[in-house]
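Reading a protein record of the kind used here takes only a little practice. The record below shows the convention in full:
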Amino acid sequence: MTTELDSDLIAEYLLEHPHFFEEHAELLSTVKLTSPVMGRAVSLQERQMEILREKIRVQELRMAELMRIAQENDEITNKFQAWSRALLLTRDAEDLPAVLVKQLQDIFHVPQVTVRLWNLGAAHADNWAVQEVTDDARIFANGLSAPFCGPNKDFEAATWLDDAATVKSVAMLPLRVGAAPEAFGLLVLGSPDPNRFTSDMGTDFLTRIGETGSAALACLLR
């Protein structure tokens, strides 16, 4: 009568006796396993090499992905620095809204960008960024605790863009002083690409854009 061996017991035995294959080295070449890679039976040694190569391949892919992310982050950091520098070099406060918008378009390659400001000082009442904004748009801006990203669903703010009819996705950044509950403006980015700004994208970088833009434009407030 043949006794059926328990595979778990065999595995446990091998773990408890790590020198088993040293004492029975011939088994490494005689034991055959099915290879999912080669599609045929291979020795235990060959199968171990396949597993090792697969682990190395996965690690290489992971390393390549990390390097890609690092390069993208480095590129974004350089662009953000260039944009911030342009704001710092603007001597006339009246030019800040135009510089902010133009540099965002040029440096970050955003197809359309605009900004609307309110509650500015009397000296800046004629600035191009001070245009009619409805109460609904102001309430919307006040309600944003973080940048809004997603499809353009006929938002009023999207109509402020030069070619609003072509805009498929938008990012809207509230402008406020520190943690003030009320915003003093809204920065709008638009793209004809529906996947440029999506509801599931990270907004940490856009938040920094909004905070830096707010700090730069705060000097225009009354």
